[in-house]
Design goal:
By secondary structure, the protein is of the alpha+beta class. The chain is about 30% helix and about 20% strand. The strands form five sheets. A five-stranded mixed barrel has the order 1-3-4-6-5.
């Protein structure tokens, strides 16, 4: 019996060594990007690397204004800029919503693993026909250790900790805001357009200006409420600046936020009266979270007024915006969506390098303002 089984055992081992039958999958153990670049033989592999941008041509990888969700570039270092050291990864349709960079710009710089076939893509070393992605994460509400120091805190202590964290930011000039908004508020369905905040209209990026039906820069926290104007700081903070139709922007003016009022021209679902404004329902939570971000970010310690929400309307030039109770209800009824999360990621990754904590953690609103 032993003698008769030895040939079978030997054949099985030989077949395994030659790659037949029960060979362990090459996709099981991740390989580096440099190894993948050198192994463009059509075999299946799992590659581990850092997301460094989106390839748009053989020698071109962009790091912002991502045109679509179809591809990304991996490298062995998050700071790699040479395309010759990058692997171009095809994102198949099943993974575009989660790993496409237009929808998930916060993936930039994160380490992920991808399984696919090693072969040229964009006439460049690539990974095609991808079947699995892991790591990174476009829905992680606490990216990295960004909110370290908030653990166990509530109320005023949480607000103070968040103020310290989000005050570490890069500041833009008012002119720079134009191009930034073309990126942060890009229409997911049309990369040539932006989506206007209150009206919801998709409009060409190139039509920014001051003429009728142009779009301009809306300060969701009105400039006059604290008298900061367009000064670098609160006057240029992307977390509350949004594109809006010129006439709708004028109709909102410096009104506080509240329910009720009459319909606003060119702004379906918006209402206004003599002392308040309400946007369309789909962005009321967005508005609330922008207002509350401003109240945490600007505490009167950097030469500007201490901005705070209150339960009043008609606040005029005082550094207050209301109504707080309404804003809290709006945030609860309209939680963060993919557009708002993408916007937060783009501002953090590409422009100001700080985040709106209430997009990541809307539950913190009721902790700070019970």
């Amino acid at each position: 019996m032993l003698r008769s089984r030895r040939p079978v055992l030997i054949v099985t081992v030989v077949l395994a060594l030659l790659g037949f039958g029960i060979t362990p999958s090459t996709a099981a153990t991740p390989i580096s990007v440099s190894t993948a670049i050198g192994r463009q033989d059509g075999s299946t592999a799992t590659v581990e690397g850092y997301v460094v941008g989106q390839p748009t041509a053989t020698n071109t990888v962009v790091r912002s204004n991502f045109p679509n969700d179809y591809a990304l570039a991996l490298a062995d270092s998050a700071t790699q800029t040479s395309t010759s050291s990058m692997l171009y990864v095809q994102i198949t349709s099943a993974f575009r919503a989660t790993y496409g960079l237009r929808s998930n710009p916060g993936l930039l710089g994160k380490k992920i693993t991808v399984t696919g076939a090693l072969g040229a893509y964009f006439s460049h070393a690539g990974l095609k026909n991808t079947t699995a992605f892991s790591g990174g994460g476009s829905t992680d509400p606490d990216p990295g250790d960004y909110y370290a120091g908030t653990e166990g805190k509530t109320g005023a202590a949480l607000k103070a900790a968040l103020h310290t964290i989000i005050s570490d930011q890069t500041k833009l000039s008012y002119d720079q805001v134009w191009n930034a908004l073309k990126d942060t508020d890009q229409d997911p369905a049309n990369p040539d357009n932006v989506v206007l905040l209150y009206s919801g209209r998709s409009q060409s990026k190139s039509t920014n200006g001051g003429d009728p039906n142009d779009w301009n820069r809306e300060h969701v926290w009105p400039q006059s409420h604290g008298d900061f104007g367009t000064a670098t700081g609160p006057g240029t903070d992307l977390h509350h600046l949004r594109p809006e139709d010129v006439s709708v922007n004028a109709a909102r003016g410096n009104l506080d936020f509240d329910n009720g009022g009459s319909a606003v021209a060119e702004c379906s679902g918006c209402t206004a009266d003599g002392d308040s404004f309400a946007p369309r329902a789909a962005v009321r939570g967005d508005v609330a979270r922008m207002i509350l971000y401003m109240a945490v970010r600007y505490e009167g310690t950097d030469g500007f007024a201490n901005l705070e929400p209150n339960n009043s309307v008609g606040n005029g030039s005082a550094p207050f915006v209301g109504k707080l109770a309404v804003l809290k209800a709006w945030s609860a009824a309209d939680p963060p969506d993919a557009f708002e999360r993408r916007r937060n990621d783009v501002i953090h990754t590409t422009y100001q390098h700080n985040r709106n904590p209430f997009v990541d953690h809307p539950e913190w609103i009721s902790s700070i303002w019970p």
